[in-house]
Amino acid sequence: MENIDYDKELAALEDMPADELRQLQMGKLKKQIKYVYDNSPDFYQKKFDAIGAKPEDIKTWDDFRNLNLYFEKSDDRETQTASSEKYGHPFGTNLCAPIDKIIHLGSTTGTTGEPTFPYLFTKEDYEIHHHMAGRHFWKMGLRPGERVLYAAGAANLAGLRIYEHALRWYGCLPIPIGAEAGTEKILRMIDVTKPSTLLATGPLIEYLIEATPKILNKDVSQLGLKRLISSGAPAAAIPSVKKKIEDAYRCRLYDSFGGYIGGSCDLDDYQGMHLLTRDFILIMEDLVDPTTKEPIRNITDGMVGESRMTNLQWMARPFFKWSPGDIFQIFTETCKCGWKFPRIKILGRSDDMLIIKGVNVYPAAIKNVVSSLEPKTTGEMRIVLEQPGPGVPPPMKIKVECGIDIDTDDKKNALKKELEDAMHIKLKCRTSVTIIPPNTLERAAGPGAKGQMIEKAYEQKK
Ligand SMILES: [Zn+2]
Questions:
Q1: ω into 390 cis (within 30 of 0)
Q2: CA 131 to ligand 1 center in whole angstroms
């Protein structure tokens, strides 16, 4: 940490009048747009030219909102193929900085096996990223000098590895361990190194509750952890899961969005992730309607939309009108914790959303109902889809693991009815629950550790 007074700079940002913040964002945005246009002739320049737009046309905030461009994962693959052919490197024609200025690379193997490179940093990007992540660490109460064990699985490696660099820069001791090492090695490492903080995906943190007594012959609350930070998969945002984890570990579970974008606060009731870096990245400002993709003009408290992310000060491969496919709910009112920074809740990915008779249902909401009935359930469930979503013909089929004490047909039938009624009341959707024995479903401790909630039965039929 390079002598940054986080309290001071965060207070200045929190109290900044809306028009002043917008002016600051707009000033940086204009420079960023010109930068990507000038430095990515084979990608951004072509995309701008194709719609007849020039950077100098974007004079106002509305001009930016109306700019009919957005980019998604498929664009990344396209740019990588193009740059391999033209420049002999796979880092994309949307790479805006010279290749010899890149000092950090985070790759994913991707589900198709083809690597992607979502984290490419110049030296300046690297420092800005860590500075932004530091604001969130600070607000979660983490202080330089503490030890942080982070368990990253391959599927989340690129995302979680960058925390290692940010933590070191901040002045903490990161203790890395791959989730591939297995639960036993992760737990033994926590036991001997005694970190204050565990950073992992939510499903892995949840899984350690049942694994720790078996492996260490003690309870997770005896690991001495002061805080948990989950990233890469929902956990803190699911009320029953958050409560289960916090009760078991006896400490706060924080939710972190990419380390530098958003983080949750110190409250029992999850309020979403506070955005502490709006001077560096646009997250909630450029929302579109998830169905029509039209810009949402008036962003008010409680509103739901799909995000377009734009970095305001980024050199290597900046997000520009980037669409990660996440559906956000935005909260603009002061939080119960007292912070005025706006918040976002990630409701789910637009491709995870299910629609039953016109009602939108996210898998995390189903998981919440199932977990809220623990110990009658184990909290583990799968939504079984017999055709690709989002439309699901009612009733939605769900497999739920029962708890160890649900050992008679009568108890199983009563649990099935209780779950179906709860889904109907809480989510307004009709479901058909199949009760299955405990420990039947694969746990989230494997390399992915993302926490599977959907079973695509239609793929297995092929
Ligand atoms: Zn708060």
A1: yes
A2: 21
* Token duo for residue 407: 């050992």
Q: Ligand 1 centroid to 449 CA: how many Å?
A: 27
- The pLDDT of residue 448: 42
H/E stretch holding 11:
helix 6-14
Cα of 339 from ligand 1 centre, angstroms? 6
Each residue's pLDDT tens digit, 235-277: 898 999 999 999 999 999 999 988 899 999 999 999 999 999 9
Please name every residue paired with 307 in a beta bridge, in sequence order, or none if there are none: 287
Report CA(358)–ligand 1 centroid distance (Å).
32
**C-alpha of residue 305 to centroid of ligand 1, in Å:** 21
Q: Which CATH number fits domain 354-461: 3.60.15.10, 3.30.300.30, 3.40.50.800, 3.60.120.10?
A: 3.30.300.30
CA 47 to chain centroid: 28
Q: pLDDT tens digit string along 124-159?
A: 999 999 999 999 999 999 999 999 998 876 555 666
CA-to-CA dists, residue 34 to 21, 44, 49, 150, angstroms: 20, 10, 13, 38
166 closest CA partner among 135, 207, 201, 189: 135
What's the Rg (C-alpha) of the chain? 23
Domain ranges, ordered by start, for the chain: 1-349, 354-461
DSSP-derived pairing of the beta strands 326-331 and 343-349: antiparallel
Q: Residue 458 and residue 452: Cα distance in Å, rounded?
A: 16
| Angle made by CA atoms 126, 258, 181, in degrees to the nearest 5 | 95
Its pTM stands at 0.86
Fold (topology level) of 1-349: Rossmann fold (3.40.50)
Other residues' Cβ atoms within 10 Å of the Cβ of residue 417 = 11
- By three-state DSSP, how is residue 103 classified? strand
Asked if residues 162 and 29 have their Cβ atoms less than 8 Å apart, the reply is no
Secondary structure of residue 58 in the 3-state scheme:
coil
Ligand 1 centre to CA of 101 (Å) is 38
Cβ 279 vs Cβ 24: under 8 Å: yes
Q: Find the 231 Cα to ligand 1 centroid distance in Å.
A: 18
